[in-house]
Protein backbone atom coordinates (compact mmCIF):
# COMPACT_ATOMS: atom_id res chain seq x y z
CA UNK A 1 0.00 0.00 0.00
CA UNK A 2 1.16 3.48 -0.81
CA UNK A 3 -0.46 6.71 0.22
CA UNK A 4 -0.04 10.44 0.40
CA UNK A 5 -1.87 12.16 3.17
CA UNK A 6 -2.29 15.85 3.61
CA UNK A 7 -3.13 17.96 6.64
CA UNK A 8 -6.15 19.97 5.60
CA UNK A 9 -8.43 22.75 6.78
CA UNK A 10 -11.19 21.77 4.36
CA UNK A 11 -11.47 19.12 1.66
CA UNK A 12 -14.59 18.35 -0.42
CA UNK A 13 -14.85 15.81 -3.25
CA UNK A 14 -17.40 15.88 -6.07
CA UNK A 15 -18.52 13.68 -8.97
CA UNK A 16 -20.21 15.23 -12.00
CA UNK A 17 -20.44 18.57 -10.24
CA UNK A 18 -22.26 17.05 -7.24
CA UNK A 19 -20.48 17.16 -3.89
CA UNK A 20 -20.51 13.68 -2.42
CA UNK A 21 -18.24 14.09 0.59
CA UNK A 22 -16.35 16.69 2.61
CA UNK A 23 -14.45 17.13 5.85
CA UNK A 24 -13.30 20.04 7.96
CA UNK A 25 -9.89 19.91 9.61
CA UNK A 26 -8.11 16.56 9.42
CA UNK A 27 -6.39 14.30 6.89
CA UNK A 28 -7.02 13.76 3.18
CA UNK A 29 -5.65 10.31 2.36
CA UNK A 30 -4.83 9.41 -1.26
CA UNK A 31 -4.49 5.63 -1.28
CA UNK A 32 -2.78 3.48 -3.93
CA UNK A 33 -3.29 -0.29 -3.77
CA UNK A 34 -0.67 -2.65 -5.19
CA UNK A 35 -1.06 -6.12 -6.66
CA UNK A 36 0.97 -7.53 -3.78
CA UNK A 37 -0.98 -5.92 -0.92
CA UNK A 38 -2.54 -8.14 1.74
CA UNK A 39 -4.43 -7.75 5.02
CA UNK A 40 -1.11 -7.24 6.78
CA UNK A 41 -0.29 -4.12 4.75
CA UNK A 42 -3.83 -2.83 5.22
CA UNK A 43 -3.66 -3.10 9.01
CA UNK A 44 -0.25 -1.43 9.09
CA UNK A 45 -1.51 1.53 7.06
CA UNK A 46 -4.62 1.97 9.22
CA UNK A 47 -2.49 2.10 12.38
CA UNK A 48 -0.07 4.61 10.87
CA UNK A 49 -2.70 6.96 9.48
CA UNK A 50 -4.57 7.16 12.77
CA UNK A 51 -1.55 7.34 15.08
CA UNK A 52 1.08 9.45 13.33
CA UNK A 53 1.70 12.62 15.29
CA UNK A 54 1.34 15.32 12.67
CA UNK A 55 -0.70 17.97 14.47
CA UNK A 56 0.23 20.53 17.10
CA UNK A 57 -0.86 20.28 20.72
CA UNK A 58 -2.72 22.83 22.84
CA UNK A 59 0.47 24.75 23.56
CA UNK A 60 1.31 25.04 19.87
CA UNK A 61 4.05 22.38 19.84
CA UNK A 62 4.25 20.81 16.39
CA UNK A 63 4.24 17.07 15.58
CA UNK A 64 2.65 16.18 18.91
CA UNK A 65 -0.88 14.92 18.26
CA UNK A 66 -2.54 12.37 15.98
CA UNK A 67 -5.81 12.75 14.11
CA UNK A 68 -7.45 10.63 16.84
CA UNK A 69 -5.96 12.79 19.61
CA UNK A 70 -7.50 15.87 17.99
CA UNK A 71 -10.76 14.14 17.03
CA UNK A 72 -10.34 15.36 13.46
CA UNK A 73 -11.85 13.83 10.31
CA UNK A 74 -10.31 11.65 7.59
CA UNK A 75 -11.26 11.79 3.91
CA UNK A 76 -10.06 8.77 1.87
CA UNK A 77 -9.69 8.76 -1.91
CA UNK A 78 -8.69 5.65 -3.87
CA UNK A 79 -6.01 6.65 -6.38
CA UNK A 80 -4.57 3.81 -8.47
CA UNK A 81 -2.24 6.25 -10.26
CA UNK A 82 -0.04 6.24 -7.14
CA UNK A 83 1.09 2.78 -8.30
CA UNK A 84 2.27 4.26 -11.61
CA UNK A 85 5.71 3.56 -13.05
CA UNK A 86 7.06 5.28 -16.14
CA UNK A 87 8.09 3.45 -19.29
CA UNK A 88 9.85 6.20 -21.16
CA UNK A 89 7.36 9.07 -21.02
CA UNK A 90 4.28 6.86 -20.75
CA UNK A 91 2.68 5.91 -17.40
CA UNK A 92 2.20 2.21 -16.73
CA UNK A 93 -0.21 0.91 -14.08
CA UNK A 94 0.40 -2.84 -14.17
CA UNK A 95 1.52 -2.74 -10.51
CA UNK A 96 -1.91 -1.46 -9.41
CA UNK A 97 -4.45 -3.99 -8.15
CA UNK A 98 -7.24 -4.75 -10.71
CA UNK A 99 -10.46 -2.77 -10.23
CA UNK A 100 -12.80 -5.47 -8.89
CA UNK A 101 -10.24 -6.79 -6.40
CA UNK A 102 -9.11 -3.28 -5.43
CA UNK A 103 -12.65 -2.11 -4.67
CA UNK A 104 -13.14 -4.91 -2.16
CA UNK A 105 -9.74 -4.16 -0.63
CA UNK A 106 -10.51 -0.43 -0.42
CA UNK A 107 -13.87 -1.03 1.25
CA UNK A 108 -12.14 -3.27 3.78
CA UNK A 109 -9.62 -0.48 4.40
CA UNK A 110 -12.45 1.95 5.17
CA UNK A 111 -14.14 -0.59 7.42
CA UNK A 112 -10.94 -1.09 9.43
CA UNK A 113 -10.46 2.68 9.79
CA UNK A 114 -14.00 3.06 11.09
CA UNK A 115 -13.60 0.20 13.56
CA UNK A 116 -10.36 1.65 14.89
CA UNK A 117 -11.69 5.22 15.15
CA UNK A 118 -15.13 6.86 14.98
CA UNK A 119 -17.17 5.77 11.92
CA UNK A 120 -18.79 9.19 11.51
CA UNK A 121 -15.36 10.84 11.18
CA UNK A 122 -14.19 8.61 8.28
CA UNK A 123 -15.41 9.86 4.89
CA UNK A 124 -14.68 8.67 1.36
CA UNK A 125 -15.29 9.55 -2.25
CA UNK A 126 -16.75 7.28 -4.91
CA UNK A 127 -14.58 4.35 -5.95
CA UNK A 128 -13.66 4.31 -9.64
CA UNK A 129 -15.34 7.65 -10.37
CA UNK A 130 -13.67 10.64 -11.97
CA UNK A 131 -13.61 12.94 -8.97
CA UNK A 132 -12.75 16.55 -8.41
CA UNK A 133 -10.99 16.77 -5.06
CA UNK A 134 -10.49 20.29 -3.71
CA UNK A 135 -7.88 20.37 -0.96
CA UNK A 136 -7.09 23.34 1.25
CA UNK A 137 -3.75 22.12 2.52
CA UNK A 138 -2.57 23.18 5.98
CA UNK A 139 1.00 24.35 5.67
CA UNK A 140 1.15 22.79 3.13
CA UNK A 141 2.11 19.50 4.79
CA UNK A 142 2.14 16.37 2.64
CA UNK A 143 3.47 13.06 3.95
CA UNK A 144 4.35 9.97 1.91
CA UNK A 145 3.67 6.63 3.58
CA UNK A 146 4.44 3.16 2.25
CA UNK A 147 3.69 -0.20 3.85
CA UNK A 148 6.76 -2.32 4.79
CA UNK A 149 6.03 -5.11 2.31
CA UNK A 150 5.97 -2.62 -0.55
CA UNK A 151 9.37 -1.01 0.01
CA UNK A 152 10.83 -2.34 -3.27
CA UNK A 153 10.84 0.32 -5.98
CA UNK A 154 8.48 -0.88 -8.77
CA UNK A 155 11.11 0.14 -11.34
CA UNK A 156 13.69 -1.98 -9.57
CA UNK A 157 11.18 -4.84 -9.33
CA UNK A 158 10.58 -4.69 -13.09
CA UNK A 159 14.33 -4.67 -13.70
CA UNK A 160 14.80 -7.72 -11.51
CA UNK A 161 11.94 -9.52 -13.28
CA UNK A 162 13.56 -8.87 -16.67
CA UNK A 163 16.92 -10.07 -15.41
CA UNK A 164 15.31 -13.26 -14.14
CA UNK A 165 13.58 -13.82 -17.48
CA UNK A 166 16.90 -13.41 -19.33
CA UNK A 167 18.55 -15.93 -17.00
CA UNK A 168 15.77 -18.45 -17.63
CA UNK A 169 16.07 -18.01 -21.41
CA UNK A 170 19.85 -18.45 -21.19
CA UNK A 171 19.48 -21.67 -19.21
CA UNK A 172 17.03 -22.96 -21.79
CA UNK A 173 19.22 -22.14 -24.80
CA UNK A 174 22.64 -23.07 -23.40
CA UNK A 175 22.83 -26.56 -21.88
CA UNK A 176 25.01 -26.97 -18.85
CA UNK A 177 28.42 -28.66 -19.01
CA UNK A 178 27.09 -31.77 -17.32
CA UNK A 179 24.17 -32.07 -19.76
CA UNK A 180 26.55 -31.71 -22.74
CA UNK A 181 28.65 -34.55 -21.35
CA UNK A 182 25.60 -36.74 -20.84
CA UNK A 183 24.30 -36.10 -24.36
CA UNK A 184 27.66 -36.49 -26.16
CA UNK A 185 28.06 -39.78 -28.10
CA UNK A 186 30.65 -42.08 -26.57
CA UNK A 187 33.19 -44.09 -28.42
CA UNK A 188 33.25 -47.88 -28.16
CA UNK A 189 36.86 -47.54 -26.98
CA UNK A 190 35.80 -45.21 -24.13
CA UNK A 191 36.21 -47.28 -20.96
CA UNK A 192 33.53 -45.20 -19.25
CA UNK A 193 30.99 -45.90 -22.00
CA UNK A 194 27.84 -47.67 -20.94
CA UNK A 195 27.98 -51.43 -21.54
CA UNK A 196 25.12 -52.61 -19.41
CA UNK A 197 27.57 -53.43 -16.62
CA UNK A 198 26.61 -53.46 -12.98
CA UNK A 199 26.08 -49.94 -11.69
CA UNK A 200 24.87 -48.47 -15.01
CA UNK A 201 21.51 -47.02 -14.01
CA UNK A 202 20.37 -46.80 -17.64
CA UNK A 203 20.83 -50.52 -18.32
CA UNK A 204 17.94 -52.95 -18.33
CA UNK A 205 18.16 -55.83 -15.88
CA UNK A 206 16.19 -59.01 -15.74
CA UNK A 207 13.96 -59.32 -12.70
From TrEMBL:
Substrates-to-products reaction catalysed: glycyl-tRNA(Ala) + H2O = tRNA(Ala) + glycine + H(+); a D-aminoacyl-tRNA + H2O = a tRNA + a D-alpha-amino acid + H(+)
E.C. no: 3.1.1.96
Compositionally biased tracts (Basic and acidic residues): 156-167, 178-191
Disordered as annotated region, ranges: 148-207
Database matches in SUPFAM superfamilies: DTD-like (SSF69500)
Cellular component terms per the entry's GO annotation: cytoplasm
Pfam assignment, any one: Tyr_Deacylase
Main localization category: cytoplasm
Keywords assigned: Cytoplasm, Hydrolase, RNA-binding, Signal, tRNA-binding
Annotated InterPro entries: Daa-tRNA_deacyls_DTD, DTD-like_sf
Span of the signal peptide: 1-17
Entry's Gene Ontology molecular function annotations: D-tyrosyl-tRNA(Tyr) deacylase activity; tRNA binding
Locations listed in the record: Cytoplasm
Family (UniProt): Belongs to the DTD family.
Protein name in the entry: D-aminoacyl-tRNA deacylase
Designated gene of the protein: Dtd1
Amino acid sequence: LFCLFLLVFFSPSSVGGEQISSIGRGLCVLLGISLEDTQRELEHMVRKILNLRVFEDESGKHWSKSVMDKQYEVLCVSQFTLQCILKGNKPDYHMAMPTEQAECFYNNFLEQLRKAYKPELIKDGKFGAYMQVHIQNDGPVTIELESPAATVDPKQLTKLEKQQQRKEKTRTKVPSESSRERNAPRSKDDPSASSGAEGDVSSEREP
